[in-house]
Amino acid sequence: MDTLKDVSVGSTVIVKRLAGEGAVKRRIMDMGITKGVRVFVRKVAPLGDPIEVTVRGYELSLRKSEAENILVE
User: Rounded to whole angstroms, how far apart are CA atoms 25 and 10?
Assistant: First the structure.
């Protein structure tokens, strides 16, 4: 299964599962990223950090380490 970090720019994916635990997982969920939600990858910085996404109509920036914890299809 791919992670959000592996998704190419301009793609829309559906979140399958959140890995990780504690503060990182809570921060991801607080941003509205939960199982079944659509995520559109808008932009990835040249070194891969941050990854800019659109979720539920909001534009968000994710760290590469957070994106690795979001499993998508």
Answer: 24
Residue 32: strand, helix, or coil: coil
Cβ-proximal residues to 20 (8 Å cutoff; 6+ apart), any chain? 28, 69
pLDDT in tens, 18-30: 998 899 899 999 9
Q: Tell me the torsion sign for CA atoms 59, 39, 3, 45.
A: negative
Buried b vs exposed e over 6-42: b needs ≥16 C-beta within 10 Å?
ebeeeeebebeebeeeeebbeebeebebeeeeebebe
Q: Is the peptide bond before 50 cis (omega within 30 degrees of 0)?
A: yes
- φ/ψ of 18, rounded to 5, equals -105, 125
